[in-house]
Amino acid sequence: MTQPSQKPPAQDGIEPGSVWVVLPTYNERGNLEAIVAAVRARLPSASVLVVDDASPDGTGDIADRLAGADPQLKVLHRAAKEGLWPAYVAGINQALDAGAQIVVQMDADWSHDPAVLPEMVSAVRSGYDLALGSRYIAGGGTPDWPLSRRVISRGGNLFAQLVLGLPYPDTTGGFRAWRADLLRVLDFGSIEASGYVCMIEMAYRAHRRRARVRQIPITFMNRRAGVSKMSGSIFAEALVQVVKLRITELARRWRGTSTSR
Asked: Which one of 88, 138, 209, 231 is separated from 190 by 20 to 30 angstroms, measured CA to CA?
């Protein structure tokens, strides 16, 4: 009697459709094809979602071409550039709607090394709610950065850490793997900031939920092609938002104390 054939397990041990990697893009035509290939090589069973904000350089067209040859690559076209976090919100929502159990967020410009992906996903699969890529723990670093950028980044992160009482020295980094169940309770769509300050607020919300967080060292490299989207106004926005978050938290505690009297 012939036994029914069984589908061999994936090389990376991941159930197809359970892990989604979300890649927001804007003018990344020089990076996209290679970064998608690298992600697929490190996580062969993962789905990759390119969220393109109507890039005028044709990034979206390249994404469509790649998706036509790879059923695990999806493309979400947005009408206009609205900022980093709105793109992530759209991508995360699509991943969750598709049944993702783990959602990875990362940049498409090679500043986040795809080689770290298996460790991040493994951390969440082993029981952590969030794998947080960190430049500022042992083993991490920013070797390509000038001193001025290092001072601004470290200073901003230290400010957020102290004001918000966070145990993580790197709260602005965007290389993260999330357990889907945690994302669903964080109300991530309500975050109004559009720049990197959203990363601080997401880390803060996860901390308030007592999420189990594993910090993983990463080396942050300068982009391979294109122009950096970082600016001084983004850091200024972050500092203001950190203070607002702290004031909101103090007000919440005060209201709770007053109600219990």
From this structure: 231
CA distance 177 to 102: 7
B/e letters for 2-20, b = 16+ CB within 10 Å, e = fewer, are: eeeeeeeeeeeebeeebbb
What angle in degrees, to the nearest 10, is found between the helix axes of 197-208 and 232-260? 30
What is the homologous superfamily of the domain 19-253 according to CATH?
Spore Coat Polysaccharide Biosynthesis Protein SpsA; Chain A (3.90.550.10)
Which among 165, 97, 107, 158 has a CA at the least distance from the CA of 133? 107
Q: Per residue in 80-117, pLDDT tens?
A: 998 899 999 999 999 999 999 999 999 999 999 999 99
Rounded to an integer, what distance in angstroms lies between the CA atom of residue 212 and that of residue 206? 9
Spatial distance between the Cα atoms of 170 and 172, rounded to a whole number of angstroms: 6
Tokens standing for residue 157 = 């992160």
CA separation for the pair 180, 104 (Å, rounded): 10
Delimit the domains of the chain by residue range.
19-253
pLDDT digits (tens, 9 = 90+) for 194-231: 767 899 999 999 999 999 999 999 999 875 554 555 55
Q: Please give the Cα distance from 195 to 220 (Å, whole number).
A: 18
Q: What type of residue sits at position 18?
A: S
0.70 exceeded by pTM? yes
